Sequence to fold (505 residues):
Amino acid sequence: MYSEFLNRTMKERLKGGSMKKLKSVMGLFTLLLVVFSATISSISASAATEQEEISSMIQEHVDKAKIPSVSTGMIRGDNVSFLSKGSQTADQNTLYTIGSTSKAFTALSILWLEDEGLLSLDDSVAKHLPWFKVKYDGKNVPDEDLSIANLVYQTSGFTNDESKFPTAKAEMTLEEYGHTFAGAELVSYPSDQYAYANANYVLLGLLIETITGKSYAEFTKEVIFEPLGLQSTSADPEKITKKDAIIQGSRLSFFMTHPYEVAIKPALIPTGYIISSTKDISRWLQIQLGTIEVEPQMKRLITKSHQPDKAHRVDEETRYAAGWFVVDDGTIQHSGGTPNYSTNFIIKPDANIGVCVLTNTNATVNTNMMAENIINIMDGDPISPYKPDIWVTMDKIFSIMTFVCVPLLIGTLVMIFRIKKQSCTGIRIKKVQKKRITKFIVLPVVLLILAIAMLIVFPITFSSGWLALSTWAPYSMYTGIGAFTVLSGLLIAAAYMVSIYPKNQ
Fold:
């Protein structure tokens, strides 16, 4: 009864203007619902378009640069999406060597030690490593002039020129390798200029071990990786060298990528050989952005790690912070490369977005381009067209050189034997003519000089010796230069024989 009364009363109240008002409200509600649905659909469509553009761009790099595996993590606020491409199966849990992006973990460790009162960035390196002395311009550098800050911000005077500074041997410990830098001749005076050098972070790793009494692997696990929830990230040499734990590294040669193993040098782990996954690195970047909460101390130190050295510039737009490059527009980034892996991590704090790209080949240029293009797509900026990595270009040149020179080499060798045989049978007779020799021998001599020039110039161009260059460059470089050099020598021999053994008329 009451319900009937209520219904009747409501109908009476809704007569006239009240009913019209209700209809207007209902109409407005319906309109808002339509607009909301359209907005959601538009956002979904936009996200789908974004993913398609990213996927297509990555596929182009995979195809053209012959990259076996690319694993990416894309961060937008609290959301993370993963995308993998390539012939080798990988996902967000697949482990890669992360190269020089390891430096951010080493620098953060140093900042933690400072925060705990165990060191100061203003301390001289010699305060904690009394045996460590360096020179500049033939004179000893006073201990107080080379600080820990110089190592962190890459202003020590060391460089990556392997012709001037010692390279690590496979069997060396961090301490043993660190001692090889004692007495080194610096390229510039400490604090005078920025110069990127792996040696700086090797020495920081040694400082961590010396001050804490723990191995670098133990310390980073205890203080950095476990507290931050980076479950698969490790600096443990045993895990890093375990072949079945990490995706197979590779190197390009003869237009294809081939499995490529490089001896892991424990001494280089603080500067470039930590292993991690896309899942862990995505979390690491979220921590950098502040979208994942961490302990106040660590949050404060991470913020400090983004503060660059104000006294020096990397270039017109960039400065170096504690294991990070900081661009004037606020972008924070670092790339990494080993002979068989490459990475690039980028965050844009203002837009609250980030990206990590991990690959299992040393196509560093392509890895960097993929990361930059992804962040540009996410931020609504134009992307850069594909550009081949230097090793890809070198492989094309030297592969073609090999394919051309080897048949010519064999043909020239056959010709030499034929001329020799004909000289024995009287078809050709020995008749030395200086003008004829000069005529035939000029071009092969020029080719040989060119071959020798390549052997000299290449190590200088890459600021390394042939041993180091051979670790990074494609196999085709050896066959190409080798075949060209041998061919040049054989052409000289053939030209000489043709000159002194003309055919008997």
